[in-house]
Amino acid sequence: MSSKKGLVIRIAAIVALGGFLLGFDASVISGVVKFIEPEFNLTKMQLGWAVSSITLAAGFGMLVAGPMSDVYGRRKILKYAALLFTVSALGSALAGTFFWLIVFRMVGGLAVGAALIIAPMYIAEVAPPNKRGQLVSFNQLNIVIGISVAFFTNYLILKWGNSDAEWAKSIGLGKWNWRWMLGLEALPAIFYFLGLFIVPRSPRWLMAKDKKEEALTVMRKVVSEKEALSQIKEVEKSIYDDQQKQKSRLGDLFKKSMRKVLIIGAIVGVFQQLVGINAVLFYAPMIFEQTGIGTDASFIQAALVGLTNLGFTIIAMLAIDKFGRKPLLIIGMIGIAICLFLLSYGFNDATYVLNAEAIANLPAEIDKTQISVIQDKVFNNDLEFKEALVSTLGETVAATHEATLVTASAKMNTILILIGIIGFVGAFAMSIGPVMWVLFSELFPTNIRGIAITVVGLINLVVAFLVQLLFPWELAALGNAMTFLLFGVFAVIGLILIWRNVSETKGKSLEELEKELIQ
Fold first, then answer.
1. DSSP secondary structure letters along 207-218
2. Interval 160-173: pLDDT, tens
Protein backbone atom coordinates (compact mmCIF):
# COMPACT_ATOMS: atom_id res chain seq x y z
CA MET A 1 0.00 0.00 0.00
CA SER A 2 1.38 3.40 -1.02
CA SER A 3 1.90 6.07 1.63
CA LYS A 4 -0.68 8.33 -0.07
CA LYS A 5 -3.30 5.58 -0.15
CA GLY A 6 -2.57 4.69 3.47
CA LEU A 7 -2.92 8.32 4.51
CA VAL A 8 -6.29 8.82 2.85
CA ILE A 9 -7.58 5.61 4.45
CA ARG A 10 -6.38 6.80 7.88
CA ILE A 11 -8.06 10.18 7.36
CA ALA A 12 -11.31 8.51 6.27
CA ALA A 13 -11.14 6.09 9.21
CA ILE A 14 -10.75 8.94 11.72
CA VAL A 15 -13.54 11.04 10.21
CA ALA A 16 -15.82 7.99 9.88
CA LEU A 17 -15.56 7.53 13.66
CA GLY A 18 -18.29 10.18 13.65
CA GLY A 19 -20.51 7.58 11.99
CA PHE A 20 -19.59 5.07 14.70
CA LEU A 21 -20.57 7.56 17.43
CA LEU A 22 -23.79 8.35 15.57
CA GLY A 23 -24.78 4.68 15.49
CA PHE A 24 -23.69 4.05 19.08
CA ASP A 25 -25.45 7.11 20.48
CA ALA A 26 -28.70 6.34 18.66
CA SER A 27 -28.97 2.68 19.69
CA VAL A 28 -27.37 2.50 23.16
CA ILE A 29 -30.74 3.66 24.55
CA SER A 30 -32.16 0.21 23.67
CA GLY A 31 -30.54 -1.23 26.79
CA VAL A 32 -31.39 1.74 28.97
CA VAL A 33 -35.19 1.93 28.59
CA LYS A 34 -35.84 -1.08 30.81
CA PHE A 35 -34.11 0.58 33.76
CA ILE A 36 -35.09 4.24 33.44
CA GLU A 37 -38.82 3.48 33.16
CA PRO A 38 -39.20 2.35 36.81
CA GLU A 39 -36.41 4.61 38.15
CA PHE A 40 -38.03 7.80 36.85
CA ASN A 41 -41.59 6.37 36.97
CA LEU A 42 -42.15 7.12 33.27
CA THR A 43 -45.34 6.87 31.25
CA LYS A 44 -45.16 5.06 27.90
CA MET A 45 -45.10 8.40 26.06
CA GLN A 46 -42.25 9.65 28.28
CA LEU A 47 -40.37 6.43 27.57
CA GLY A 48 -40.88 7.02 23.85
CA TRP A 49 -39.65 10.60 24.30
CA ALA A 50 -36.46 9.32 25.99
CA VAL A 51 -35.70 7.34 22.82
CA SER A 52 -36.98 9.72 20.14
CA SER A 53 -35.71 13.06 21.49
CA ILE A 54 -32.29 12.42 19.97
CA THR A 55 -33.86 12.13 16.50
CA LEU A 56 -35.73 15.41 16.89
CA ALA A 57 -32.53 17.20 17.90
CA ALA A 58 -30.66 15.51 15.04
CA GLY A 59 -33.01 17.17 12.56
CA PHE A 60 -32.09 20.59 13.92
CA GLY A 61 -28.41 19.65 14.07
CA MET A 62 -28.50 18.60 10.43
CA LEU A 63 -30.09 21.91 9.40
CA VAL A 64 -27.49 24.12 11.09
CA ALA A 65 -24.36 21.97 10.64
CA GLY A 66 -24.27 22.24 6.83
CA PRO A 67 -24.28 26.05 6.63
CA MET A 68 -21.93 26.29 9.63
CA SER A 69 -19.46 23.94 7.94
CA ASP A 70 -19.45 26.21 4.88
CA VAL A 71 -18.43 29.14 7.11
CA TYR A 72 -16.12 27.52 9.68
CA GLY A 73 -14.97 24.38 7.89
CA ARG A 74 -15.88 20.68 7.98
CA ARG A 75 -13.15 19.69 10.45
CA LYS A 76 -14.05 22.38 13.00
CA ILE A 77 -17.74 21.40 13.04
CA LEU A 78 -16.78 17.75 13.49
CA LYS A 79 -14.62 18.77 16.49
CA TYR A 80 -17.63 20.53 17.99
CA ALA A 81 -19.70 17.40 17.32
CA ALA A 82 -17.10 15.27 19.14
CA LEU A 83 -17.30 17.59 22.16
CA LEU A 84 -21.11 17.42 22.09
CA PHE A 85 -20.97 13.61 21.98
CA THR A 86 -18.70 13.68 25.05
CA VAL A 87 -20.88 16.12 26.99
CA SER A 88 -23.98 14.13 26.07
CA ALA A 89 -22.49 10.82 27.22
CA LEU A 90 -21.25 12.11 30.58
CA GLY A 91 -24.32 14.30 31.21
CA SER A 92 -26.76 11.49 30.41
CA ALA A 93 -24.86 9.08 32.66
CA LEU A 94 -24.95 11.52 35.58
CA ALA A 95 -28.51 12.80 35.03
CA GLY A 96 -30.41 12.93 38.31
CA THR A 97 -33.82 13.56 36.78
CA PHE A 98 -35.68 12.62 33.62
CA PHE A 99 -35.58 16.27 32.50
CA TRP A 100 -31.78 16.40 32.52
CA LEU A 101 -31.54 12.99 30.84
CA ILE A 102 -33.61 14.37 27.96
CA VAL A 103 -31.54 17.58 27.83
CA PHE A 104 -28.25 15.70 27.48
CA ARG A 105 -29.74 13.18 25.04
CA MET A 106 -30.77 16.10 22.84
CA VAL A 107 -27.26 17.55 23.09
CA GLY A 108 -26.10 14.24 21.62
CA GLY A 109 -28.79 14.58 18.96
CA LEU A 110 -27.21 17.82 17.74
CA ALA A 111 -23.94 15.93 17.31
CA VAL A 112 -25.74 13.09 15.51
CA GLY A 113 -27.25 15.55 13.00
CA ALA A 114 -23.87 17.17 12.36
CA ALA A 115 -22.04 13.85 11.94
CA LEU A 116 -24.80 12.53 9.68
CA ILE A 117 -24.03 15.01 6.91
CA ILE A 118 -20.56 16.46 7.62
CA ALA A 119 -18.56 13.22 7.98
CA PRO A 120 -19.49 11.79 4.54
CA MET A 121 -19.21 15.29 3.03
CA TYR A 122 -15.62 15.67 4.28
CA ILE A 123 -14.62 12.18 3.13
CA ALA A 124 -16.07 12.83 -0.35
CA GLU A 125 -14.12 16.10 -0.57
CA VAL A 126 -10.73 14.66 0.40
CA ALA A 127 -10.92 11.21 -1.27
CA PRO A 128 -9.47 10.50 -4.74
CA PRO A 129 -12.29 10.15 -7.34
CA ASN A 130 -11.63 6.42 -7.95
CA LYS A 131 -11.94 5.64 -4.22
CA ARG A 132 -14.68 8.10 -3.28
CA GLY A 133 -17.63 5.66 -3.28
CA GLN A 134 -15.80 3.07 -1.24
CA LEU A 135 -14.49 5.54 1.32
CA VAL A 136 -17.85 7.33 1.73
CA SER A 137 -19.53 3.94 2.21
CA PHE A 138 -17.06 3.37 5.06
CA ASN A 139 -18.96 6.01 7.04
CA GLN A 140 -22.27 4.14 6.60
CA LEU A 141 -20.56 0.91 7.63
CA ASN A 142 -19.25 2.61 10.77
CA ILE A 143 -22.79 3.68 11.69
CA VAL A 144 -23.89 0.04 11.61
CA ILE A 145 -20.77 -1.02 13.55
CA GLY A 146 -21.63 1.61 16.18
CA ILE A 147 -25.15 0.18 16.50
CA SER A 148 -23.75 -3.35 16.89
CA VAL A 149 -21.14 -2.31 19.47
CA ALA A 150 -23.82 -0.54 21.53
CA PHE A 151 -25.83 -3.78 21.69
CA PHE A 152 -22.75 -5.75 22.77
CA THR A 153 -21.55 -3.27 25.40
CA ASN A 154 -25.08 -3.11 26.85
CA TYR A 155 -25.07 -6.90 27.15
CA LEU A 156 -21.58 -7.03 28.68
CA ILE A 157 -22.39 -4.32 31.25
CA LEU A 158 -25.54 -6.20 32.25
CA LYS A 159 -23.65 -9.52 32.44
CA TRP A 160 -20.70 -8.19 34.45
CA GLY A 161 -23.02 -6.11 36.64
CA ASN A 162 -24.88 -9.27 37.65
CA SER A 163 -21.67 -11.21 38.31
CA ASP A 164 -19.77 -11.59 41.59
CA ALA A 165 -16.64 -9.94 40.19
CA GLU A 166 -15.17 -7.53 42.75
CA TRP A 167 -14.01 -5.03 40.13
CA ALA A 168 -17.57 -4.81 38.76
CA LYS A 169 -18.96 -4.21 42.25
CA SER A 170 -16.32 -1.61 43.03
CA ILE A 171 -17.40 0.61 40.12
CA GLY A 172 -21.12 -0.02 40.63
CA LEU A 173 -21.60 -1.79 37.30
CA GLY A 174 -24.71 -3.54 38.60
CA LYS A 175 -26.15 -0.66 40.60
CA TRP A 176 -25.60 1.94 37.89
CA ASN A 177 -25.79 -0.30 34.81
CA TRP A 178 -27.77 2.07 32.57
CA ARG A 179 -25.53 4.97 33.55
CA TRP A 180 -22.45 3.01 32.49
CA MET A 181 -24.18 2.11 29.20
CA LEU A 182 -24.64 5.79 28.37
CA GLY A 183 -21.36 7.06 29.82
CA LEU A 184 -19.17 4.58 27.94
CA GLU A 185 -19.62 6.61 24.75
CA ALA A 186 -17.39 9.36 26.17
CA LEU A 187 -14.27 7.24 25.46
CA PRO A 188 -14.59 7.00 21.63
CA ALA A 189 -15.89 10.59 21.57
CA ILE A 190 -12.69 11.83 23.23
CA PHE A 191 -10.57 9.74 20.84
CA TYR A 192 -12.54 11.25 17.95
CA PHE A 193 -11.89 14.79 19.13
CA LEU A 194 -8.15 14.15 19.51
CA GLY A 195 -7.94 12.27 16.20
CA LEU A 196 -9.43 15.19 14.28
CA PHE A 197 -6.35 17.28 15.12
CA ILE A 198 -4.27 15.16 12.73
CA VAL A 199 -6.86 15.42 9.95
CA PRO A 200 -6.24 18.21 7.41
CA ARG A 201 -8.86 20.77 6.51
CA SER A 202 -11.01 19.94 3.48
CA PRO A 203 -9.18 21.01 0.28
CA ARG A 204 -12.44 21.99 -1.40
CA TRP A 205 -13.49 24.13 1.55
CA LEU A 206 -10.03 25.73 1.53
CA MET A 207 -10.43 26.56 -2.16
CA ALA A 208 -13.83 28.12 -1.48
CA LYS A 209 -12.11 30.31 1.13
CA ASP A 210 -9.37 31.30 -1.35
CA LYS A 211 -6.64 29.29 0.42
CA LYS A 212 -5.25 27.65 -2.70
CA GLU A 213 -1.75 26.89 -1.41
CA GLU A 214 -3.00 25.02 1.67
CA ALA A 215 -5.57 23.18 -0.47
CA LEU A 216 -2.83 22.11 -2.90
CA THR A 217 -0.65 20.93 0.01
CA VAL A 218 -3.49 18.70 1.25
CA MET A 219 -4.17 17.36 -2.26
CA ARG A 220 -0.49 16.45 -2.72
CA LYS A 221 -0.65 14.29 0.40
CA VAL A 222 -3.41 12.06 -0.99
CA VAL A 223 -2.78 12.03 -4.77
CA SER A 224 0.13 12.58 -7.14
CA GLU A 225 1.41 16.04 -8.06
CA LYS A 226 -0.19 15.83 -11.49
CA GLU A 227 -3.55 14.72 -10.11
CA ALA A 228 -3.41 17.36 -7.39
CA LEU A 229 -2.93 20.18 -9.90
CA SER A 230 -5.66 18.73 -12.14
CA GLN A 231 -8.16 18.47 -9.29
CA ILE A 232 -7.38 21.97 -8.05
CA LYS A 233 -8.15 23.31 -11.54
CA GLU A 234 -11.43 21.37 -11.59
CA VAL A 235 -12.39 22.75 -8.18
CA GLU A 236 -11.53 26.29 -9.31
CA LYS A 237 -13.74 25.87 -12.38
CA SER A 238 -16.56 24.38 -10.33
CA ILE A 239 -16.45 27.27 -7.84
CA TYR A 240 -16.43 29.79 -10.68
CA ASP A 241 -19.37 28.07 -12.42
CA ASP A 242 -21.33 27.98 -9.16
CA GLN A 243 -20.75 31.70 -8.68
CA GLN A 244 -22.21 32.40 -12.11
CA LYS A 245 -25.34 30.35 -11.45
CA GLN A 246 -28.42 31.67 -9.77
CA LYS A 247 -28.63 30.36 -6.21
CA SER A 248 -31.08 27.49 -5.77
CA ARG A 249 -34.05 28.10 -3.51
CA LEU A 250 -36.34 25.81 -1.58
CA GLY A 251 -39.20 26.72 -3.91
CA ASP A 252 -37.26 25.26 -6.87
CA LEU A 253 -37.72 21.79 -5.35
CA PHE A 254 -41.50 22.04 -5.76
CA LYS A 255 -41.53 22.98 -9.43
CA LYS A 256 -43.52 20.71 -11.75
CA SER A 257 -40.34 19.37 -13.36
CA MET A 258 -39.13 18.10 -9.96
CA ARG A 259 -42.38 16.29 -9.11
CA LYS A 260 -41.24 12.79 -10.07
CA VAL A 261 -37.94 12.79 -8.16
CA LEU A 262 -39.55 14.44 -5.14
CA ILE A 263 -42.27 11.76 -5.05
CA ILE A 264 -39.65 9.00 -5.28
CA GLY A 265 -37.57 10.60 -2.52
CA ALA A 266 -40.60 11.07 -0.26
CA ILE A 267 -41.84 7.48 -0.77
CA VAL A 268 -38.47 5.93 0.03
CA GLY A 269 -37.79 8.34 2.91
CA VAL A 270 -41.19 7.79 4.56
CA PHE A 271 -41.46 4.02 4.19
CA GLN A 272 -37.86 3.39 5.25
CA GLN A 273 -39.08 4.36 8.71
CA LEU A 274 -42.80 3.40 8.61
CA VAL A 275 -41.89 -0.29 8.51
CA GLY A 276 -40.67 0.14 12.10
CA ILE A 277 -36.93 -0.47 11.84
CA ASN A 278 -36.04 2.04 14.56
CA ALA A 279 -38.68 0.53 16.84
CA VAL A 280 -36.86 -2.81 16.53
CA LEU A 281 -33.31 -1.41 16.77
CA PHE A 282 -34.02 1.03 19.62
CA TYR A 283 -36.29 -1.26 21.65
CA ALA A 284 -34.80 -4.67 20.80
CA PRO A 285 -34.34 -5.96 24.40
CA MET A 286 -37.88 -4.79 25.29
CA ILE A 287 -39.32 -6.67 22.30
CA PHE A 288 -37.41 -9.86 23.11
CA GLU A 289 -38.54 -9.64 26.74
CA GLN A 290 -42.14 -9.79 25.49
CA THR A 291 -41.40 -13.36 24.31
CA GLY A 292 -40.71 -14.46 27.89
CA ILE A 293 -37.03 -15.36 27.43
CA GLY A 294 -35.82 -13.17 30.30
CA THR A 295 -33.63 -10.08 30.52
CA ASP A 296 -30.20 -11.69 29.96
CA ALA A 297 -31.33 -13.65 26.91
CA SER A 298 -33.11 -10.59 25.51
CA PHE A 299 -29.84 -8.61 25.57
CA ILE A 300 -27.98 -11.50 23.90
CA GLN A 301 -30.56 -11.66 21.11
CA ALA A 302 -30.43 -7.87 20.74
CA ALA A 303 -26.68 -8.22 20.12
CA LEU A 304 -27.51 -10.82 17.44
CA VAL A 305 -29.73 -8.18 15.80
CA GLY A 306 -26.70 -5.87 15.66
CA LEU A 307 -24.58 -8.53 13.97
CA THR A 308 -27.32 -9.23 11.43
CA ASN A 309 -27.60 -5.53 10.65
CA LEU A 310 -23.84 -5.32 10.10
CA GLY A 311 -23.59 -8.44 7.93
CA PHE A 312 -26.45 -7.58 5.60
CA THR A 313 -25.29 -3.97 5.24
CA ILE A 314 -21.98 -5.31 3.89
CA ILE A 315 -23.95 -7.54 1.48
CA ALA A 316 -25.88 -4.49 0.26
CA MET A 317 -22.65 -2.55 -0.32
CA LEU A 318 -21.31 -5.41 -2.45
CA ALA A 319 -24.57 -6.00 -4.36
CA ILE A 320 -25.98 -2.54 -5.03
CA ASP A 321 -23.93 -1.81 -8.15
CA LYS A 322 -24.33 -5.36 -9.45
CA PHE A 323 -28.07 -5.94 -9.04
CA GLY A 324 -29.33 -2.36 -9.02
CA ARG A 325 -31.29 -0.21 -6.60
CA LYS A 326 -34.88 -1.13 -7.47
CA PRO A 327 -34.46 -4.95 -7.37
CA LEU A 328 -32.88 -4.68 -3.92
CA LEU A 329 -35.72 -2.43 -2.76
CA ILE A 330 -38.42 -4.81 -4.05
CA ILE A 331 -36.80 -7.98 -2.69
CA GLY A 332 -36.12 -6.26 0.64
CA MET A 333 -39.66 -4.89 1.05
CA ILE A 334 -41.15 -8.32 0.30
CA GLY A 335 -38.87 -9.84 2.96
CA ILE A 336 -39.72 -7.07 5.43
CA ALA A 337 -43.48 -7.58 4.97
CA ILE A 338 -43.26 -11.38 5.33
CA CYS A 339 -41.18 -11.13 8.51
CA LEU A 340 -43.47 -8.52 10.09
CA PHE A 341 -46.54 -10.68 9.41
CA LEU A 342 -44.61 -13.62 10.89
CA LEU A 343 -43.97 -11.58 14.04
CA SER A 344 -47.62 -10.59 14.26
CA TYR A 345 -48.69 -14.23 13.93
CA GLY A 346 -46.16 -15.39 16.55
CA PHE A 347 -47.30 -12.85 19.14
CA ASN A 348 -51.00 -13.41 18.30
CA ASP A 349 -50.57 -17.15 18.94
CA ALA A 350 -49.14 -16.55 22.44
CA THR A 351 -50.88 -17.33 25.73
CA TYR A 352 -50.02 -16.20 29.26
CA VAL A 353 -50.63 -18.24 32.41
CA LEU A 354 -49.10 -18.13 35.92
CA ASN A 355 -49.20 -21.54 37.56
CA ALA A 356 -48.41 -22.31 41.21
CA GLU A 357 -44.76 -23.17 40.50
CA ALA A 358 -44.20 -19.96 38.55
CA ILE A 359 -45.73 -17.85 41.31
CA ALA A 360 -43.63 -19.59 43.97
CA ASN A 361 -40.44 -18.69 42.06
CA LEU A 362 -41.28 -14.99 41.68
CA PRO A 363 -39.05 -12.44 43.48
CA ALA A 364 -39.90 -11.53 47.06
CA GLU A 365 -40.75 -7.98 45.99
CA ILE A 366 -43.93 -9.30 44.34
CA ASP A 367 -46.80 -10.00 46.73
CA LYS A 368 -47.61 -13.65 46.04
CA THR A 369 -50.94 -13.41 47.81
CA GLN A 370 -52.05 -10.65 45.46
CA ILE A 371 -50.80 -12.33 42.30
CA SER A 372 -52.37 -15.69 43.23
CA VAL A 373 -55.74 -14.16 42.32
CA ILE A 374 -54.91 -14.81 38.64
CA GLN A 375 -53.19 -18.20 39.22
CA ASP A 376 -53.87 -20.72 36.40
CA LYS A 377 -56.00 -18.21 34.51
CA VAL A 378 -55.20 -18.32 30.78
CA PHE A 379 -54.86 -14.99 28.95
CA ASN A 380 -54.99 -15.08 25.15
CA ASN A 381 -53.02 -11.91 24.52
CA ASP A 382 -50.51 -9.63 26.17
CA LEU A 383 -52.98 -6.78 26.68
CA GLU A 384 -55.34 -8.88 28.79
CA PHE A 385 -52.46 -10.24 30.85
CA LYS A 386 -50.92 -6.81 31.53
CA GLU A 387 -54.30 -5.34 32.46
CA ALA A 388 -54.73 -8.17 34.96
CA LEU A 389 -51.29 -7.44 36.44
CA VAL A 390 -52.14 -3.76 36.91
CA SER A 391 -55.48 -4.57 38.55
CA THR A 392 -53.93 -7.05 41.00
CA LEU A 393 -50.53 -5.48 41.76
CA GLY A 394 -51.02 -1.80 40.97
CA GLU A 395 -49.52 0.15 38.08
CA THR A 396 -46.10 0.84 39.63
CA VAL A 397 -45.34 -2.72 40.76
CA ALA A 398 -46.72 -4.19 37.52
CA ALA A 399 -44.51 -1.90 35.40
CA THR A 400 -41.41 -2.59 37.53
CA HIS A 401 -41.75 -6.39 37.33
CA GLU A 402 -43.43 -6.71 33.93
CA ALA A 403 -40.47 -8.48 32.28
CA THR A 404 -40.19 -10.99 35.16
CA LEU A 405 -43.92 -11.76 35.08
CA VAL A 406 -43.99 -12.10 31.28
CA THR A 407 -41.00 -14.47 31.48
CA ALA A 408 -42.82 -16.60 34.07
CA SER A 409 -46.09 -16.78 32.15
CA ALA A 410 -45.53 -16.49 28.36
CA LYS A 411 -46.11 -19.52 26.16
CA MET A 412 -45.13 -18.84 22.56
CA ASN A 413 -42.85 -19.94 19.75
CA THR A 414 -39.76 -17.89 20.64
CA ILE A 415 -37.76 -19.33 17.72
CA LEU A 416 -40.42 -18.05 15.31
CA ILE A 417 -40.21 -14.58 16.87
CA LEU A 418 -36.41 -14.60 16.67
CA ILE A 419 -36.51 -15.66 13.00
CA GLY A 420 -39.03 -12.91 12.28
CA ILE A 421 -36.93 -10.16 13.88
CA ILE A 422 -33.60 -11.33 12.45
CA GLY A 423 -35.17 -11.75 9.01
CA PHE A 424 -36.75 -8.30 9.21
CA VAL A 425 -33.48 -6.60 10.16
CA GLY A 426 -31.57 -8.52 7.46
CA ALA A 427 -34.11 -7.64 4.74
CA PHE A 428 -34.02 -3.99 5.77
CA ALA A 429 -30.21 -3.80 5.98
CA MET A 430 -29.73 -5.23 2.47
CA SER A 431 -32.33 -2.99 0.85
CA ILE A 432 -34.14 0.20 1.81
CA GLY A 433 -31.76 0.95 4.70
CA PRO A 434 -28.61 1.79 2.72
CA VAL A 435 -30.27 2.12 -0.73
CA MET A 436 -32.24 5.19 0.39
CA TRP A 437 -29.10 7.32 0.81
CA VAL A 438 -27.68 6.13 -2.50
CA LEU A 439 -30.90 7.11 -4.26
CA PHE A 440 -30.94 10.50 -2.55
CA SER A 441 -27.46 11.24 -3.90
CA GLU A 442 -28.48 10.25 -7.46
CA LEU A 443 -32.05 11.50 -7.95
CA PHE A 444 -31.70 15.25 -7.64
CA PRO A 445 -29.96 17.70 -10.02
CA THR A 446 -26.59 19.01 -8.90
CA ASN A 447 -27.74 22.61 -8.47
CA ILE A 448 -30.43 21.66 -5.95
CA ARG A 449 -29.07 18.42 -4.51
CA GLY A 450 -28.07 19.89 -1.16
CA ILE A 451 -31.48 21.43 -0.50
CA ALA A 452 -33.33 18.35 -1.79
CA ILE A 453 -31.39 15.86 0.35
CA THR A 454 -31.92 18.06 3.39
CA VAL A 455 -35.69 18.16 2.78
CA VAL A 456 -36.20 14.42 2.17
CA GLY A 457 -33.73 13.66 4.97
CA LEU A 458 -35.82 15.76 7.34
CA ILE A 459 -38.99 13.96 6.21
CA ASN A 460 -37.24 10.69 7.02
CA LEU A 461 -36.17 11.97 10.46
CA VAL A 462 -39.67 13.24 11.32
CA VAL A 463 -41.20 9.83 10.56
CA ALA A 464 -38.39 8.13 12.51
CA PHE A 465 -39.10 10.42 15.47
CA LEU A 466 -42.82 9.54 15.44
CA VAL A 467 -42.14 5.79 15.18
CA GLN A 468 -39.71 5.88 18.11
CA LEU A 469 -41.97 8.12 20.20
CA LEU A 470 -45.16 6.10 19.71
CA PHE A 471 -43.79 2.53 19.85
CA PRO A 472 -44.05 1.99 23.66
CA TRP A 473 -47.57 3.45 23.58
CA GLU A 474 -48.49 1.18 20.64
CA LEU A 475 -47.33 -1.91 22.53
CA ALA A 476 -49.34 -0.84 25.58
CA ALA A 477 -52.49 0.24 23.67
CA LEU A 478 -52.56 -2.08 20.63
CA GLY A 479 -50.54 -5.06 21.83
CA ASN A 480 -47.57 -6.83 20.27
CA ALA A 481 -49.47 -8.62 17.48
CA MET A 482 -51.42 -5.59 16.24
CA THR A 483 -48.34 -3.31 16.37
CA PHE A 484 -46.30 -5.57 14.08
CA LEU A 485 -49.33 -6.19 11.85
CA LEU A 486 -49.57 -2.42 11.36
CA PHE A 487 -45.89 -2.21 10.40
CA GLY A 488 -46.45 -5.11 7.97
CA VAL A 489 -49.34 -3.29 6.28
CA PHE A 490 -47.11 -0.23 5.85
CA ALA A 491 -44.46 -2.48 4.27
CA VAL A 492 -46.97 -3.78 1.70
CA ILE A 493 -48.10 -0.23 0.85
CA GLY A 494 -44.45 0.83 0.53
CA LEU A 495 -43.70 -2.15 -1.74
CA ILE A 496 -46.56 -1.21 -4.10
CA LEU A 497 -45.54 2.45 -4.25
CA ILE A 498 -41.86 1.60 -4.82
CA TRP A 499 -42.78 -0.90 -7.56
CA ARG A 500 -44.90 1.69 -9.36
CA ASN A 501 -42.86 4.86 -8.87
CA VAL A 502 -39.14 4.23 -8.29
CA SER A 503 -36.88 4.33 -11.35
CA GLU A 504 -33.68 2.31 -11.67
CA THR A 505 -30.56 4.48 -11.43
CA LYS A 506 -27.88 1.80 -11.74
CA GLY A 507 -25.20 2.40 -14.35
CA LYS A 508 -26.47 5.83 -15.40
CA SER A 509 -24.54 9.06 -15.08
CA LEU A 510 -26.00 11.88 -12.99
CA GLU A 511 -26.50 13.86 -16.20
CA GLU A 512 -28.42 10.97 -17.83
CA LEU A 513 -30.64 10.64 -14.77
CA GLU A 514 -31.35 14.36 -14.79
CA LYS A 515 -32.54 14.20 -18.42
CA GLU A 516 -34.65 11.12 -17.70
CA LEU A 517 -36.28 12.17 -14.42
CA ILE A 518 -36.50 15.98 -14.55
CA GLN A 519 -39.34 16.68 -16.98
1. HHTT-HHHHHHH
2. 988 888 998 999 99
